[in-house]
Each structure stands twice: as structure tokens, then as C-alpha cells.
Amino acid sequence: MTTWAIGDLQGCYDETSRLLDAINFDPARDHLWFCGDLVNRGGQSLQTLRLVKSLDIHSEVVLGNHDLSLLAISLRREEDQARVNPDLREVLFAPDRTELLEWLRMRRLIHVDRRLGWAMVHAGLAPRWSVEIAQRHAEEVHQRLHGKQFGKLLSGMYGNQPDTFHPRLAGPDRMRAIINVFTRMRFCSPRGTIAFDDKGPPGTQKPGIYPWFSVPGHAPRGMNIVFGHWSTLGLSISHNTVGLDTGCVWGGKLTAMALDEDTPRFVQVPGRENGAPTVVRNLPHGRRG
């Protein structure tokens, strides 16, 4: 049995299918972790969503910012839904849209497997959050997202303020701050202020901010963390974290990593193009406990 973590799909169904073939995925034996952003931009969001949903009992999925955006758009007037890009519109007007969107809404912001020693989020964690603290804050959002008043949560999640999570935050501001950490964070300050405008690779950011996983003095995490969201970062292994968004939708690659092997093993297929899979073994940075 192998547990595979897979980077952002973003509606790239063909590439996802090729990656599952490349890792010889066997649902009777293997398990999949999807790092969020299943939809948008790739042109095949409906097929991708149907595929991942069909793998439900064989997988774990965390929500990304594009997934949450799709859910929010689905609550708007039909004429407004008709104005979104064709990729999302195909989902919104599909005959099985209700089933697909209800399934997506039930996904979570963090998945933790202490037996494996891995946690998964879409974007990142605030500097002062341990994995346990992150789970508690995620649960606050889950209770609202999975409840009857989920529309209020989704309609109130947009915006960059507050840009720093603080325990005293309440109401929509608190929910927005938690969601932004889990689904939009790349760089932040040591106190957790998110630098929303900095989206390039490390070294391109403004002074005084850091990649979320290497902020000086961040809380001990006690386990490895796999994440997506950051295509300009590419395949990244550092500080007990692995970034798997390798820009499939932008013509990069779609990447899977075996989580339960002592030596890092990555399998990649080209993004949006046909080609043989690339298997990467024994990278310079080993798995860190």
C-alpha cells in the first residue's frame, strides 16, 4: 500500500489520469491525498471533480481557494453564474452539480495522519500555529461550512482584511482570517501578517517577510506538512515541509509524492502535454521527521 500526495489539479483531468497511471494507482491497495484546488483554469474542471469524487473512499481532499470560490459562486443568481469562465460554468450547469458541490463542501481545510507523521493543507499555517492549534481553528470553519448557514460563511470569506490572525478576532473577520491562512498564504511576517501581493519564489518578496514554512521562531509542528498553492515555488523540500504545486495548469508538471516511504519518491507527468512520466528518486534533501 502506498499513500500518494498530489499537487494542485486545477481542472487538468487528462494530466491527472496520466499521473494515476504513472503511479500505478490501485484503489484496492493505495490511498490518495489531494492538496486542494481541484478546479479552475485547466479546462476540464467538471471531469476532474467527478473523477476525484469517484475516488472518495480512497482519498483525502483539502479545500483550496479555487474550490471555495466555486462554492461561493454556486450560491449566486443563475445569471451571475452564467458569466463566469467556461471551465467553472460547466460545473455550475452540470446535471450532477448539486451532488458534486455538496460533496466538495464537505471537504476540510486540514488533514492529519499521525500514524504516517504527515499533515496536509492547501496553502500554509500561521507562524504561531502548531498542527493541533491549526486543527482547532479549521474545525471552527468546518462547523459553519458543513452546517445550514454555510452561505453566510462563503459570502463573507472574500477580502484581505484582517491580514493577521489573532485569537481575539470574532465573527466573519475571524472566519476570513482562518480561511486566508489555510488557502491563500505564501509569505508572511513573523507575527503572521500575510503578504498577499507577493506571489513569486523566495527571494522576490519584500524585506521582513518569509515563506510561511521558514518564518523565524515559528511554532514547533512535530510532523511533516505537504501543501500546494504556490506554483512559482515549484517542488520544494525544506523545514519538514514539501510543496507539490509544480504548475501543471501553467505548462509545468503534475506531481505525486509517496508519503509512507523512507526515501522521498516523486512521480511527475508533464502539464497539459502528452509525455512519459518522470520518476525522481533520492533527492538531495531526505525526508525529515
H and E string:
EHEHEHHHHEEHHHEEEEEEEE
Radius of gyration: 18 Å
* DSSP strand tally: 13
Shape: globular
Please tell me about this protein's structure.
The protein has a single domain, classed as 4-Layer Sandwich (Purple Acid Phosphatase, chain A, domain 2). The two termini are 20 Å apart. The chain is an alpha/beta fold. Helix content is 29%, strand content 17%. Mean pLDDT is 93; it is low at 274-289. Helix 7 packs across helix 9 (171-184). The protein has helices spanning 13-22, 45-54, 65-73, 78-81, 86-92, 97-105, 131-145, 150-155, 171-184, and strands spanning 3-6, 31-34, 59-61, 110-113, 118-121, 187-188, 210-211, 224-227, 236-238, 241-243, 253-258, 265-270, 278-281.
What is the compact description of this entry?
This protein is of the alpha/beta class and 289 residues long.
Task: Outline the fold blueprint.
Layout: E1 3-6, H1 13-22, E2 31-34, H2 45-54, E3 59-61, H3 65-73, H4 78-81, H5 86-92, H6 97-105, E4 110-113, E5 118-121, H7 131-145, H8 150-155, H9 171-184, E6 187-188, E7 210-211, E8 224-227, E9 236-238, E10 241-243, E11 253-258, E12 265-270, E13 278-281
Parallel strand pairs: 1-2, 2-3, 5-8, 8-10
Antiparallel strand pairs: 1-11, 4-5, 6-7, 9-10, 11-12, 12-13
Helix pairs in contact: 7-9
List keywords for this structure.
289 residues, alpha/beta, Purple Acid Phosphatase, chain A, domain 2, six-stranded mixed beta sheet, five-stranded mixed beta sheet, globular
